[in-house]
Design a protein that fits this description.
The structure holds 2 protein chains of 2 kinds.
Chain A lengths: L1 H14 L10 H6 L4 H25 L8 H23 L1 H7 L1 H4 L5 H9 L6 H31 L1 E2 L4 H4 L8 E2 L8 H4 L1 H30 L3 H16 L4
Antiparallel strand pairs in A: 1-2
Helix pairs in contact in A: 1-8, 3-4, 3-7, 3-8, 4-5, 4-7, 8-11
Chain B lengths: L1 H48 L13 E4 L10 E8 L2 E14 L2 E10 L4 E8 L51 H25 L10
Antiparallel strand pairs in B: 1-2, 2-3, 3-4, 4-5
Classes of the chains: A mainly alpha, B alpha+beta.
Amino acid sequence: MTNNWRTIALNGLWHSNPALVQLLGLCPLLAVSNSLVNGLGMGLATMAVLMSSNLIIALTRRWIPSEIRIPVFVLLIASLVSCVELLMQAFTPGLYLNLGIFVALIVTNCIIIGRAEAFASKNPVVDGVVDGLMMGGGFAIVLTLLGALRELIGQGTLFDGAALLFGPIASNWTLHIGAGGEHFLLAILAPGAFIGLGLLVALKNAIDAGLKARAQPVAVAKPVRARVTTVSGGSEGEREPA
Amino acid sequence: MLRSAGRNGLLLTLFAIATTGLIALTHQFTKERIANAKRAQQYASLTRLLPAGSYDNDLAASCVRLAADPRLGPGEHQAFIARKEQLTSAIAMQVTAPDGYSGTIELLVAIDHDGVLTGVDVLNHRETPGLGDKIERRRSNWLDSFVGRRLERDPDPRFAVRKDGGDFDQFTGATITPRAVVGAVANALRYHAEQAPLLANRQPDCGDQR
């Protein structure tokens, strides 16, 4: 059981990370990652929707005939997003104004219906929730990282506007790095989002390649044959049919 | 086959009812907080723009709807009438600058009974972060340069950004945004000069209901 959760966690956070490997949900990912707080807020909202949709779908999976499962998923996800939107308007109105239309657009994020179809509808309830937590967490971490990167390079700050998410106590959390007043505008605008995400994907691939290269020479004697087996075995094991 | 279709239809209906119920419950639970948050935001703006002590009425309850007018810009707008001892001391109105760098800029402009600006606030905008967003109060004090200004004559050549020969600073790399805001404020002053007496006598028809 714990081993199973470990696999789910590794998949969500690393091997099939929704943002870095599956490249799903790029629209909100690129649009609202212009600051750390915006990224984190969007990531948490997506995670909340993903966890609750996985929970409900895993709970009701025995009663949903496969012919009507897609409309049921759509109905459920749409209403969960509406609820999250209302809750954000009530409890974090400033952040809601910052994120604008992208909160409502969580409904179109493929990762949510993707996990409903590929995982939650075929697995026990607890596993479904853990999967939602890990997949949502993987998405939120990348979103926050990209937001921090863009805010730092583009604006020279971190945690700008933290009060919107954490309340008035956070009003002086903003860190100013560097001389200030020097803005690298490209990082804040749309191209910065694409370049930043590209760099993060490259970094992830480089780390994977590094790990593989370190593991390989020790494991097998014949390099040529070893590469063939690891390529086919490795990639099939890691990826899930989406 | 007909039976399974009926069963599926029933299940879908049940799901639709359940999920709609979920939204309705959340709405019930959050309705008041959302209204409060909106009101608080508007009230914070109003109290910032109108000098304390210049009014003794309930601003939120003094809201009047404004009929569409090209000087107010696109969209719907409201005005809040500040009164002291029954006399109108100032009017705060929502206006929209139609010509921002990326879309419209929504402003709240407060003008006292002499036609002098007591303050301008940006309610909503989508200007470029790092350049045009210096119109936000938390990023620079540019908005304060409006306080105490009025239209000396019409057109007033000094009521423009420096690049156009006026008195208001533009930002490095962003002229369009401040130009749009200055233009919208000037239009608000013109509207005020003509409509203020009419507005002051209107019955409130919005505000706390929203």
